[in-house]
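In pairs, describe these two lines:
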Amino acid sequence: MIGTRTQKSEKIAVEKIFAILITIFASITFVIQPLFSVPDEGTHYANAYGIFHNDTKNDNYFAAYRYPNNIDFYRDHKFAKSYTEKGDYTQDKLALNFTSTSVQYLPAAVGMLLGQWIYPSTVVILSFGRLFNLIFYALAIYFAIKKAKFGQWMMTAVALLPMSVQQAVSVSYDVFFFVTVFLTFSLVTNLVTRQDRLKWRDYLPIILVICLLFLAKQSSLVMLFYFLALPVSLVRPNFFTSAIDSIWKFFNRHRLIFLVLMALSFLLFIQYYFKNYEGLTRGLQVLFNTFFRPDIKTDLDEILVTGVIGNFGWLTHRLPEWFVILDFIFLFLILLNEKPVKLQNRFVFMSSMIFIGNILMVSLTMFSAWTIGVLKLFDIMFVSGEQGRYYTPFLICLIPLGIYLKKYITVKMSDLVMKRLFVGMLLANFAYFVILTLLFYYTDDGGSQFITQFSSWIRGLI
């Protein structure tokens, strides 16, 4: 009997584990996650609603949702009436306002349109938008994991982190962003392990993925660099492929020159980007302070680092650093236990650079668009406004590096132990997320005295 159970456990495919856990996690989150409690969800709600209705940017009704929700609204249990209270939707007339940037909101917008048709309360409309976004997330990520040629465990772990689940059960365009990153990486794993040349029909998914990258957040465009590190044997030899192959071979033989050229290119880019903000020296100082000076950028640990795994609500409650450290150790172990695959060094290097490049791209964009553009902090010496969730899906870009490190670091676990650790850590993360959410939003004092209050309640019963 024990042997039979062990065999069945080992045969459970990783995509099935994802399907089971996302169903459990999302169902619970769908119930307990308060209205507009995901960062900027009110703005995303208005943007998605505006696809099939008149413009909502200047509508006073939607403006009320663009800011953090009132915590007392939940702690006083007044939120219940929102389920039956009809919203004052002055933009009820159907209209099509669809642009290329609207694609990110399409799943949520379709759900919201259906929800409004069923019952025009804010809760119903938002819930249906969340539901359709969630279905899109679950199906697309399931497909990406199932079709990936390697890295499936890491992909599943990242897709089920508390931060990922919070975003999945929302109307945020982060759902489209996460899906784009996962589908792109899944496609790349197929291309980099392919032995024969591409046929005409094989170009269709490549074109679709490239379109997704241009339609998602700008930072996702950094994944286009993957196509410079794929085997040139995928296509017929031509001048372009020969040039790329020659460049990679040259830098593989002269790595010191390669590193020097990379450093010079980085400095030139920073000089260009900060040409209107005092140039290279300020740019380097801003980046250094942002990533290496937590005494200057005081939210470096709690928002950027912890935020990759779990800083919830409008950055109101989060996992503690000690638990996040355990999560990073867990993810590292997952990387080291991915199945071995023969990968070219150029691909491992490029994937690692894409991970770092996303971090830099997001930070530079936030500096010019938010720190300077919105906050008008012209003299500030660090980036303000970036959050760890911007980096979460790009964790899967570290998979090739983890497979490469298996040559030097050996951590062996049986399939059964691996799956038990995997499921156990994900359940622990989600349980922590649920407890924090319930305590923060649904107790009078945010849960600061729930143990003593619970003890007094038990004594009262006795």
The first strand starts at residue 311 and ends at 312. DSSP finds 20 helices and two strands in the chain. The first helix runs from residue 2 to 11.
